[in-house]
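WARN  no MSA supplied for this record, continuing single-sequence
INFO  ligand: S-adenosylmethionine
INFO  echoing inputs
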Amino acid sequence: MPEEIIDLNAIAAYGRPINSSNTSKEVTFNQVHLILYGDPSTKLIYDSAHKYFNKTLDQTYPHTYLKKDVFSSLIQKIHPSLKLQFVVEIGSFTGNSASNIGNVLKESYPGSFLLCIDTWLGDLNMWVHKAVWQHLSVSEDGRPTVYYQFLTNIIKQNLTKIVLPASMTSIIGARFLRTFQFHPQVIYLDSAHEQGETLIELSLYWNLLQPGGILIGDDWGWRSVRCDVKKFSYMKNVTIERAENTWIIKKPVD
Ligand SMILES: C[S@@+](CC[C@H](N)C(=O)[O-])C[C@H]1O[C@@H](n2cnc3c(N)ncnc32)[C@H](O)[C@@H]1O
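INFO  complex generated
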């Protein structure tokens, strides 16, 4: 089996990283906001959210397993001295797990932030089996509006300086981070869980993770997830830890 699953240097736009040094640099909420949307001191994205779809706080999406205490205790157990500054979530939906992570960061890690990478277009279960369909909030003309629910939920919990959304596919999100050489200490993977796509996500985000960092994922109960996570751990010779439906892999320091 080849060691690398995907060529990590084959970035479509311009072909090479903008920050070409290989040293990881500290990244802030303001920096990423500036790159994606402009200066947050004059044009914070949350300021315009109320113009669209008039949503109110809604935390009723039922399948959030990453609660505040689960996130904190995982960090404490796996790497208690890990200094969290930059966390990435792939798959945020209405923002329940994002809020849980965001609140932990706000309380315990001053200056840190969470980047939420999601298309906000849902997954196969939602479209085919209509699972949690109402939370996708599809407009009459066929477009999910759950992104505005996410924004509203983050605003209502005063997390607008801690949680930053990026409406991208997981692959584009990884390429974005690689382009700027932004390396998170913790990554939470909870996207579509399709077999093959999960393996690519694992491969891309593993390479972005800081040495000593932690990769956490949801839905060990899904066969597609288990297959890809096990394949990945075999190929990289790393150990999978489990906490119920959550799986965890710690990246060695070198
Ligand atoms: C199960 S939901 C996430 C739930 C959330 N983490 C929680 O616990 O509250 C899965 C999310 O993954 C997103 N998603 C699916 N495929 C994706 C992809 N290829 N790239 C980015 N996001 C994706 C969907 O839009 C959806 O919002």
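The pocket of S-adenosylmethionine is lined by residues 61, 64, 66, 90-93, 96-97, 117-123, 169-170, 190-192 (CB under 6 Å).
INFO  checksum written, moving to next record
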